[in-house]
Amino acid sequence: MNLSQKLIATHLLEGSLIPGTEIALRVDQTLSQDATGTLVMLELEALQLDRIHTELSVQYVDHNLIQEDYKNPDDHLFLLSASKRFGLWYSRPGNGVSHIVHMQYFGKPGKCLIGADSHTCAAGCLGMLAIGCGGLEVALAIAGKPFYTNMPKIFGIQLINQLANWVSAKDIILELLRRYNVFGARGCILEYYGPGLSALSAMDRHVIANMGAELGATASVFPADENTQAFLTAQQRGDDYQPLSADPEASYDRQVTLDLNTLVPLIALPSSPGNVVPVTDVIGWPLYQAYLGSSANPGFRDYAIAACIVKNKIIPTQISFDINPASRNTLEELLHSGYLGALLHAGARLHQAGCNGCIGMGQAPATNGNSLRTVPRNFKGRSGTADDRVFLCSPETAAASAISGVITDPRTINIPYPMIHFPKYPIVDWAMFEAPLTPEQRAHITLQKGPNIVSLPEQSALMDHAALPILLKVTNNISTDAILPAGLHVLPYRSNIPKISDFCFEHLDSTYVLRARQADSTIGHVIIAGDNYGQGSSREHAALAPRYLGLRIVIALSFARIHWQNLVNHGILPLT
Ligand code: MIC
Fold first, then answer.
1. Which of 40, 73, 166, 492 is deepest in the core (most CB within 10 A)?
2. Is the CB of 35 under 6 A from ligand 1?
3. 383 lines ligand 1 (CB under 6 A)
4. To test ligand 1's pocket by mutation, which of 117, 382, 483 has the most ligand atoms within 8 angstroms of CB?
5. Model confidence, pTM
């Protein structure tokens, strides 16, 4: 067996390992973040849940951090009260992005994690079976129900040789996106193996595993080996380690070999993670912003190498050089090691640990300004600027470009390849979490709901027969960011479905909401779409909000996995 099959077999409750057939999995752990988690908690409330039934469930606050008014902070306190009420761990605002923090504190080889965030697959870097999904599935898993999905094909990625200097983990996943595009791994688990793994740390693997979501993969799986053990030991969790790997003669449904030594710095052009070209194709293009951080490049080395590149230099005035630490611990380590000082001295703008500009919660780029980011996705308008020009690249490329003032191949800057000095003892600080309460303590907790937290709307059953108007026709690869945008003006309504529905298809067809409201809501309407409809984020708001406006059926050439399930979960018929 390959490792993915082993992980599935040990969690299989129903079905068999035949690709394409439905399987039910036992879930050990769940994660949710604030932008999806408020719905999860409202769903737990609707289920009248008494306590969590998983081994471990964690609620993070990492997305909606800017407190322009009461809405986001009300959500944070609601989530704290719900975590206490139901028995979840709570990670406070500023503690960092769910994916890296989960890896640091809770990730465990061999466990099955599902998460209300498409990048949950990042935890596959530790030898976990980690799958992103909609909030309702996380709520049901917390309530002790299995997770249903189709048995994926296993796509073996054999890594041989080693990366050259100035080429890093981000370039590996960008190379896979260059080859297979944003739909190339749908219905698959990407399983990495081979001698090339030995030089990739657990955090390098996180970079690669995280962006499996961009290829449409169900999960990313790495073996648990000595690099995994080194990471867990440094996190003072050496006991959580167990070695895991594919059998020596394991086979895969699909297979490719990647010679790491042949890779070059790559960059995804606006506005799809699949538009990948070598950086050499765009050198000299003007730059407005260079942006470090997010779940896609969250590790100490990603900031440290940028610090080495900009050390003792000054970033040109017109460039916004944004540092978004992914975890508070990493921020503290950068502080103590001096790397943060080098970044700040060069002109960096330091933001709090969290998702921030990755989802358009601040740091929007200027009109026509090219923004080079280490984030995982660059769908149009996601940064908060409607006509944005966001590129995806490695920290090396972002920092080298920041210092040069134009898009630059990091191999051409005139400094020796830096040696990173890692902290001897990484910071491990459980004080930043609220641990689950005892049953006696939980009994006294009530949910703390601010005025913007609105219970889930009542919905009528799907009709047996209907003649419905078609209100919208859209093309291929429509992302959930296009269906229900992110950004500072929309995100604070994540706990308020009636209000957030005002923003459906805002950038794609600003007349849709009005036309849907004017249509007969007792009949509803249809959307026609191309291939890969609903790719990207797991936000179930992209189903619930159009449903609130009367959407009953989507007819598409094909659907992205998570959005298809979200449509089903909320009573919209997805027809292929
Ligand atoms: C994303 O990267 O698109 C997000 C924002 O993390 C989403 C979740 C959300 O929309 O709240 C995701 O990846 O699922």
1. 40
2. yes
3. no
4. 117
5. 0.98
